[in-house]
Design goal:
41% helix; three-stranded antiparallel β-sheet; 241 residues; alpha/beta; single chain; six-stranded parallel β-sheet
Length: 241
Amino acid sequence: MYRAAGKLLADSGRLMGVADEGGFWPAFDGNEDALDLLVRAIERAGFTPGEDLAISLDIAASQFRGGGKYALARDGRLLSSAEMSDLLLGWLRRYPIVAIEDPLAEDDVAGLARFTAAAGRGVEVVGDDAVCTDARRVRMLADAGACNTALIKPNQIGTLTETRAAVEAAHAVGWNTIVSARSGETEDVTIVHLAVGWGIEQLKVGSFTRSERMAKWNEGLRLAEVLPSGAALPPRDKFRW
């Protein structure tokens, strides 16, 4: 699928390079064009969208919110919190999306709560900027009904003790958790061991490029070879598809 996406981008002249997290850096005319290409890439690779493979998005909405509005420069639109939610909910209906990270800005807690309720059970509404691997923020957001999954970054909060506290707080309120790498990574593979050792079912490390990303994928494969249980995937019913 990775190769299929790369070929589609290259053939259309839209492949500009590789981004920080190891994924392709494309040039699209509009934001939804990326989703259309992903579906085409899944199909070209011989899979069925929504059956064999699904889509996870990182919106990073804090980065383009100002003055209470969301500026979609590529689409030439300035949206309110409710309008931004409606846009993303439309994507959830039309595309096989099972997780959506930072759909609204970190300080738009009311918007995050409205979106989480509307997205419904089975869609992971992932808090990264809103959570910051902080147990106190997890509890605050959970009380507000905002998000249902915490992105866990050990070097974001500073210590493994605080990281573990954020994981425990998330599980205490019924949230899922995802251990995540960051931009500017090294080849250190500690987060792979933390995910396995803490029994966290999901790991976000970036795409199949550059050594700092591949080191983590390869360490996961090595651990799967020696663990008695192998490398079981999260159950399908964890997600809406």
